[in-house]
Amino acid sequence: MFDINLNLIMGQLVLGLVNGVFYAILSLGLAIIFGLLGVINFAHGIFFMLGAYFAWMLLDQFALGYWYALALVPLIVGIIGVAVEVLLIRHLYRLDHLYGLLLTLGVALAVEGFIRIVFGSQGLPYSIPPSLKGAFNLGFMFLPYYRAWVVVAGIVLCLATWALIEKTPLGAKLRAATDNPKLVQAFGINVPVMLTLTYAGGVALAALGGVMAAPIMSVDPAMGTNIVIVVFAVVVIGGMGSIFGAIVTGLGLGLLEGLAKAVFPQGASTVIFVVMVLVLVARPRGLFGKMA
Known about the structure:
Helix content: over 70%
Order of helices and strands: HHHHEEHHHHHHH
CATH architecture: Orthogonal Bundle
């Protein structure tokens, strides 16, 4: 029997929106990499986890706080992404998607194991920046300033990335380079470099999400693995490669998950996967996916 409490529902919807922002940021990076490169990047959650760990290391080893981490960590992880694309991913573009999935899964397992050896399995604390401590009184709940910041900054980040890919000359060149690389190369555009930077940008988004998640989630080796399964479901529901679909579906499913926690907590952990099954049955290409 459902126990409906309006204040509880509103509070869980707000918290669900926070989770939805992380789903949207991660699924956006996945959609960019798959849509423009055709690679199913199962290592995406690892870059999210690395973002949180690099933020912790900057604070612990160099006394560089949250705002420095927001600027530096995506650059650091983006450079790692360049190395991964050049050394590993680049050789799989002409092969079946399964090879990319298996390779990135192997990378994910190797990196997670390495992090466990170096830092252990126990979670590491990362404090909220002093400027964002405190909370709003929304009447039905106290919303921490930091979570409000995550929602606003995350949505702005997602919309800016969508606009960059869909509405700018650079985005047009990226899409053209993936559709017809030989023709684009003939116009003097270095297609391999563009693809490398695309992969680096996608994983840098994941790392930025990891920095934003560090004060909320426990910084531990499994944090990327735990969230990437849900994020893959989000991408499938929105439509593989659909950037707009990744944003809308990530936010929407975060709200749905929050509603489920308030109304039917036992089913909250599976509601997204139930939606995925229903969408795949009714619309196999996803809600916003294009016809093949």
